[in-house]
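Follow-up to my earlier ticket, as requested here are the two runs.
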Amino acid sequence: MAHQPAPWSRDELFGLCASDPERVVDLVFDLWDRVNSLTQQVDTLTQKVADLERQVHQNSRNSHKPPSSDGYQKPAPKSLRKKSGKPSGGQIGHPGTRLEMRDHPDQIVTHRPVACRHCGEPLEAIYINPSSAYDRRQVFDLVARIEVTAFNRYHIKPVIDIRNMWKDSDATRTLPGQTTVTYNYRGAVFCHDPVTGAIHSMSNGGFEEARQTLKKRCPARFAGISCAEQDQCPVVPD
């Protein structure tokens, strides 16, 4: 804001004090109120500027902000190691370690001279004795080994392929190819004694590769249940 000149001159103010002192008093009090109001505004703005400057200078070291918020103002890393007074690198008397040259490397690459470096004569057709002197060096490379894992997922064919096709009136159904074996809606398998009519639940007995399904054990054979037709039962394995 540009500087505004006073509305009265010095002489005009002295004349006003002599002619109308009451007006001068009112003017002084009005100016005093304006000064107090402007002083409060300055104090408020000064506090806001201080808060903004404090936010600008906050980082992960002097506040709860994470290090990722530091941006390009991150300080240079400082090592926690203290100076030992020793020169850097290997110390005197240190045995040292290195990769020794091997007598039988994994592969050998031969570099033959193409032409004489003095006269430029081509040397491709010239025989070079393998036992002649040559420069030898070896390069050690760390080769990553790829490990392949195969996953074989086995599937078991259920007794009931489509349960939604099951009729509510059928409590059990006869297993195809059998006369004394039935199964229900949940897939449980039962053996019926042809003489007494007793019904026994059959337990799982492994996996049958040919039918891709679970084997069922005869209750008489594996549970010790008495069955008069056990010898003639087609379910009992030989």
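Run two:
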Amino acid sequence: MKRLFLFLTLLFAIAAYGSKAYVANGDSDTVSVIDTATNSVVQTIGVGDRPGCIAITPDGSKAYVANGDSDNVSVIDTATNSVIQTISVGDRPVGIAITPDGSKAYVANYLSDNVSVIDTATNSVIQTISVGDGPVGIAITPDGSKAYVANYLSDNVSVIDTATNSVIQTIGVGNRPVCIAITPDGSKAYVANFLSDNVSVIDIATNSVIQTIGVGDGPQYVAITPDGSKAYVANYGSDNVSIIDIATNSVIQTIGVGRPTGVAITPDGSKAYVGNYLSDTVSVIDTATNSVIQTISVGDGPLEIAITPSTKQPSTSVTVPLAPQSLFILAGLILLAGTTRRKFA
């Protein structure tokens, strides 16, 4: 049996540059490159040990891959699809997010209970921030002023002021929070609580939980549509995806998939890509009908998801119409045996 290292967010990671998507395969130590026009794998890139989370720079030029077992981050040049640098970080990095201006990457280190701050201009760690116990998922507000960190073992969320890189508040949430997604307008954060089978909704203005939404079994990833109308939640334990109406904070539909570990929404909001860890596949959901329209075979143990902003041809200038936090939704590392849940090892 394969070890189930699920890097949420985030699990498997997909990032599309124009017509391409990048999928982190946690059990084969690779990243699969998918042509999203044909939904076929066109390239495979070797990275570090147990890649699970990918964040793409706002200009789409680079992908940062958190490698959980090698304690580093691989930097991929998306023009050449090659690793151009490797950055040492903390112990077991499992989540990563990039600021809207692309200047910094924040990496959640699960076993060292901290967040490494990377300067993307030099690709060096410039600061380390202590947070709660077992940080896994990270999301950054659209204005870049705050980073929200899901602490799996302390059942709370640390709020980091990115100007000072200090924790300014801690918010209690559900049991074993693993992933955070922030709405495009920056008003709310949605936190997947793996062991309490629900999602906590945080009002960012007050940093307080204003609602709790029951979903499927073992939610471990949340992705929000570009228009902010819906949240897609990957439920690992019940093999499905819950769709939440953001206006009412209620589940309006459930879609059966494989053993889902991550979800990403395309920049135009027309499709959701879901990583299925045990079947080594990605399910493609048509968000208009909320039905699975295709299944793509990828590497061994696909984990988290991230999608790049829309672009024209690679030779033209890059535009970034989509809020960055919806592109770099982070995931946490969950160690499971079969379908039995247990804490990280």
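The only thing I checked on run two: The CA atoms of residues 311 and 319 lie 6 Å apart. Let me know what else you need.
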